Amino acid sequence: MELLKRASLVGVVMSARRLLSARGLNVSRGTRIVLSGIDFNLVEGEIVALIGENGSGKSTLLETLAGLHPMSSGYVKRHDLGEPKLIRDSEGSRGNIAGFGLTLQSDGICGEETVKERIDSALKISGVIASDDDIESILSQWGLEHRAKDNVSQLSDGLRRRVAVLAGLMPAAMQSEPTVVLLDEPSEGLDKASRDLLATWLRALSLRGNSIVIATHDSQMISVADRLLSFDSNGSLNSSQGESLGEISILPSPAKKFDASRFFEFINWSWRMEKRNPIDTVGRATPALVAMLLAFTLVGQIDIPQTSSLSTHVGNDLIAGLVLAPAFITAIVAPALIKRLAEERAGDWWRAMTGANSRAMFSIGGASFILPIPIMYLSWFVIAGDIDSSTNDEVLKWLWLPALSVIDISAAAAALHLMVSDLNRSSAAAGSLLLLVLIWPFLELTSALSTIMESGMTFELSIGEPLSDILISSFSAILVWGVAVIIPED
Q1: What is the DSSP string of 200-266?
Q2: Strand order in the sheet with 85-89
Q3: With 90 as the cut, is the pLDDT of residue 138 above it?
């Protein structure tokens, strides 16, 4: 009976359609060639186990299939989304291929997420909406229902690993159409009961047509595979037949599909993390308030004579620069989002899930949208509070315009910080020097505010007018942002 079952499964694999393919992959890590000339097909309903010693290339291949590593040649494509869609190629191009399951060796979860939020994020970004009852039932099956509202940071290592594995399985378990699941050492850190449950889920998912790639040392995981791939010393693959054994679990019924917005899901995630632990807001506001107090002290020590138009202009420039400086500081401070994305490689999970333009999404999520306007108005009251009433009224009426431009500067600064964080040795790079390019937008805003103080707001678009200076500032910041987000991530 077992032989007949195995022969039947082999027959299905031989006739099934491809869900994922890779051609001519050459991937290096430093000076070492890890993958050399790899051709790989993953067909519907197949479980493939990547086996071998540590450092042989298992994780590199799996993460390359997820689009996380650059390659010197070759490409990876998904075939389960209608026409073949690019995941990544050697030219640096990436596709929007959300919808598959992924569990990284380092979990890929920010500790500020709750267990239920993580499962929700994995489902929604895959285009699936599951009911609370369905999620609670699955969490109960995995022994996590009593921790559903707990932050992941409060879990033991074993429970945290369960959450990471379940988040990788759920997109396949809840979709009506077969998809791809990539699991890196999924059983590592799990207890025996969880490993047994994982094995039964893998077989059940494959019988639904889902394709699964597992990088593993675990003999139990290897035993459920239809095909084994091992690496030789020169980075090539050797294939052998697996046993394809194991019991089958009862999976939840497929859930309702919807058009997933990767941008919305990521922004929603980053906002929840900040609302729960506002370290970004505090980290930006503190240096801004210090700068504001220093500027107030400085203004009190400077006596600017008002006997000529030139001295008036110089005084307005100084006041404008000091008023803008605290808001500018909030804009260029490195966002806390970078640390959140670095935690347990959460950023790599989101990069794989969001596909192309992930840095653009990250930079918008890391920009300061809330602080620039209140900080700028507070700066005006603290630094220029005793200015004459007509000038004060005019500035208060239009101060929000340069504040909006500071938000553009903040997005550009976040993109620069993210670009530097993607470097292999980001801490050794003088990335902060790149922020000097944002001095130009700041000077344009200083000129705009000084002109408003001196002669009021006008809407002419000629050089030197306030609106023109503000638009130039925003355009300059957007240009910096665009350059930062299009530079390849690796």
Answers
A1: HHHHHHHHTT-EEEEE---HHHHHT-SEEEEE-TTS-EEEEE-------PPPPPP-EE----HHHHH
A2: 32-43, 18-29, 73-78, 85-89
A3: yes
SS3 138: helix
Residue 466: pLDDT over 60 = yes
Average pLDDT on 216-243 reads 82
Residues 323-355: b if buried by 16+ CB within 10 A, e if exposed = bbbbbbbbbbbbbbbbbbbebbbbbbbbbbbbb
CA angle 47, 52, 53 (to 5 degrees): 145
Report pLDDT digits (tens) over 288-317. 999 999 988 877 665 544 444 444 555 788
Cα–Cα nearest to 61, from 212, 216, 215: 215
Q: What Å distances lie between residue 432 and 79, 173, 416, 420, CA to CA?
A: 42, 44, 9, 9
Between the CA of residue 77 and those of 15, 171, 219, 231, what are the distances in Å?
19, 18, 29, 22
Contact 418, 366 (CB under 8 A): yes
pLDDT in tens, 46-93: 999 999 888 888 999 999 999 999 899 999 999 876 788 899 999 888
Q: Hey, what are 327's tokens?
A: 């808001």
Inter-residue contact 374 to 442 (CB < 8 Å):
no
What is the token pair recorded at 351? Answer: 């990069």
**Structural domains in the chain, sorted by start:** 2-260 (3.40.50.300), 263-486 (no CATH)
Compute the residue count for the chain.
Answer: 490
For residues 441 and 359, is the Cβ–Cβ distance under 8 A?
no
State which H helix or E strand residue 427 sits in. none
The pLDDT value recorded for residue 130 is 86
* Burial group, residue 303, by CB count within 10 angstroms (0-12, 13-18, 19+): exposed
Strands 256-257 and 128-129: antiparallel
For residue 436, what are the contacts with CB-CB under 8 A and spacing of at least 6?
none
